[in-house]
């Protein structure tokens, strides 16, 4: 197995955390009942992808734009957590799978909050 090219993604631990959670989701998706897989399952899948895209965009954006993108990522994360909880409440996800998916996302929320606080500290309002 060859290693993927390093595009400086290693300097974004929050992206790695989202990617790891997505891999778990990707392995879970085929086990979800068909009725839910192509509705709520696809919604969750898309939210994971959009969240990763926002984090990646923030990582490569100018400092002046990062906070706005991080805010969007935080909203996307909260939406993702809401739909995962809904899937759990519908018994589409058992408690173990729900925990395996939601626990890293709680950490992602902390990481995004810390990233934003760091940006605010580095660039105080004018």
CATH topology label: de novo design (two linked rop proteins)
Helix proportion of residues, in percent?
over 70%
Quickly name the level 1 CATH class.
Mainly Alpha
Overall tally of structural domains: 1
- Computed over alpha carbons, the radius of gyration is 16 Å
Question: What structural class should be given to the helix and strand makeup?
Answer: mainly alpha
The overall pLDDT average reads: 92
Catalogue the unreliable spans: none
Question: Between the first and last Cα atoms, what is the distance in angstroms?
Answer: 51 Å
Q: Categorize the overall geometry.
A: elongated
Number of strands: 0
Number of helices: 4
Q: Strand-and-helix sequence, N→C?
A: HHHH
Instruction: Based on the coordinates given, report the CATH architecture.
Output: Up-down Bundle
The CATH homologous superfamily is termed 23S rRNA-intervening sequence
* Portion in beta strands: under 5%
| Biggest sheet details | none
Structure description:
- With 126 residues, this protein is mostly helical.
- The chain has one domain (11-122): 23S rRNA-intervening sequence (de novo design (two linked rop proteins)), CATH 1.20.1440.
- The chain has 4 helices and no strands.
- The longest helix is centred in the last third of the chain and has 28 residues, at 95-122.
């Amino acid at each position: 197995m060859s290693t993927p090219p390093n595009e400086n993604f290693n300097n974004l631990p929050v992206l790695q955390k989202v990617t790891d959670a997505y891999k778990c989701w990707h392995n879970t998706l085929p086990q979800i009942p068909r009725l839910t897989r192509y509705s709520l399952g696809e919604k969750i899948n898309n939210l994971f992808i959009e969240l990763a895209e926002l984090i990646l965009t923030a990582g490569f954006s100018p400092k002046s734009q990062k906070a706005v993108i991080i805010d969007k990522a935080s909203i996307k994360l909260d939406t993702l957590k809401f739909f995962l909880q809904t899937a759990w409440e519908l018994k589409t996800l058992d408690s173990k799978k729900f925990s395996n998916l939601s626990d890293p996302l709680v950490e992602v929320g902390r990481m995004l909050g810390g990233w934003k606080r760091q940006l605010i500290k580095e660039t105080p309002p004018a």
